[in-house]
Amino acid sequence: MNSNNRHYQDFRRRLSEVKTTRWVRFTIVSILFFLLVIWIGSPWLAILWLLLVDIYITGYVPWNWWKGKKGAVRTVMAWVDAIVYALVLVYIIFAFIGQNYKIPSSSLEKSLLVGDFLWVNKTTYGPRVPNTPLHFPLAQHTMPIIGGKSYIEHPQLAYHRLPGIREVERGDIVVFNFPEGDTVLSRMPDADYYMITHALRERGLDPQEYIALNKAQFGEIIVRPVDRRENYVKRVIGLPGERLQLINDTVYINGSPIAFADHVQFNYIIPVSRAISDDKWLELGVRREDHGVAPISGNELAGGLYYTVPLTDEMKRIVEAWPEVSGPLQKENIAGFYEIGNVWPLGNDWGWTRANTDEFWIPKRGKTLHLTLDNLPLYRRAIETYEGNKVEVKDGRILINGIDNPYYTFRMDYYWMMGDNRDRSLDSRYFGLVPEDHVVGTPQRILISIDEERALTDPQKIRWNRILANPNPDKDKAREKGWK
């Protein structure tokens, strides 16, 4: 009997030994698998079906070798087997249904608070097919404890979003990948690489050369795929195809002002005659990082000291009545005490600030824009980085992929995102337009909320009133004011 015949006989034997119940399970799993492949739209994934064939039917790989063992080996492998199945389940849930997310900063206070743990629904706008399908499901980009990348860079899938329930709407709170998180510094992973390089250019330095010569400070330059970038959470303010402008902090859409969310905050200069206690700020709902532990030393206003604190209108009225306050409160953007420029697009001296901009257009999928040297700084990153084209300027002409054609048709929708804590939010005013392929999902419920500034024994450590609460009650209120 030749080897081919032996292999064939062995294959037939393996098929004959498979129980009917196992064939039924295999058929069900195969149907679900191919439906998933069709849904994802990547035919090459069908190759993985052969793995299911071996697991359920042929058994050439001894997947269950440990079941014949006794003692510690069987116990350990039973746990490993259970953990692997759990990780696969978590991977599917996190990739296509939703995942938990913790609010790390105060950029959306008072809508979302630091310490809120959210359930982010990925089905609302349609789940993205992972760009990096081979990744550890419980880490964004870095393995916990051991460090190192939590994903394998290849293969990478092209952007594809499965059908969702609805489109992104104004007022939605959205979790998205940080657009400028494509490049980070290993020793400064939380810093904005592009702001750092811009600051170096402002000093007349070559950023690449300076970073290479100062690796002890900056570390290595790391490039991350879209879905492995840091997650940010902001409110959608501008939608694709709209014209947006900021005038004294008020947002104008297509020439008309839109209402502020109820909990929007602005920084106020607060002159005081004496220090205000931490407990008083805490009871008001101001985090320590947002007021400091004492008045800002060395700064004088009308002969006294002052705080700079983000306040809602209601909080402002309360603070104005405090006995420590020695004069009228001023909005930071008109007081002239701080630099509020250095906003998007970096490197352009247009006089834009976080409170005031000229009107500009937000790109919409399928719409064509006439590019000029004047508007190119607004759209170059979208065309070049997010949509993968080569943009050059030669002799006053704009070339895209080497072709002299100033008309560009966008392949994606873009959004303008802002935090409710307006003067303490790293948002679109600094990093610009957010492409649709960066959108992760929208928070559906607050799972639990923990006040990190309170002691463990403090009965208010857990914000009980926020458990399972709606994370975005302001949206409906704003829509009632005409925010559509």
Keywords:
484 residues; alpha+beta; four-stranded antiparallel beta sheet; 14 helices; 28% helix; 19% strand; globular
Descriptive notes:
This protein is of the alpha+beta class. The chain has 14 helices and 21 strands. The protein has helices at 3-16, 20-40, 49-58, 72-96, 193-202, 207-213, 215-218, 278-284, 288-291, 313-320, 332-335, 376-386, 428-431, 473-480; strands spanning 98-102, 116-121, 173-177, 183-185, 221-223, 231-238, 243-247, 250-253, 256-257, 266-272, 305-311, 330-331, 360-361, 368-370, 391-394, 397-400, 403-404, 407-409, 414-418, 434-435, 439-449. Strands 1-2-21-3-6-19-20 form a seven-stranded antiparallel beta sheet. Strands 9-8-7-13 form a four-stranded antiparallel beta sheet, with no helix packed on it. A three-stranded antiparallel beta sheet has the order 11-10-12. A hairpin with a 2-residue loop joins strand 8 (250-253) and strand 9 (256-257). Helix 2 packs antiparallel against helix 3. It is globular.
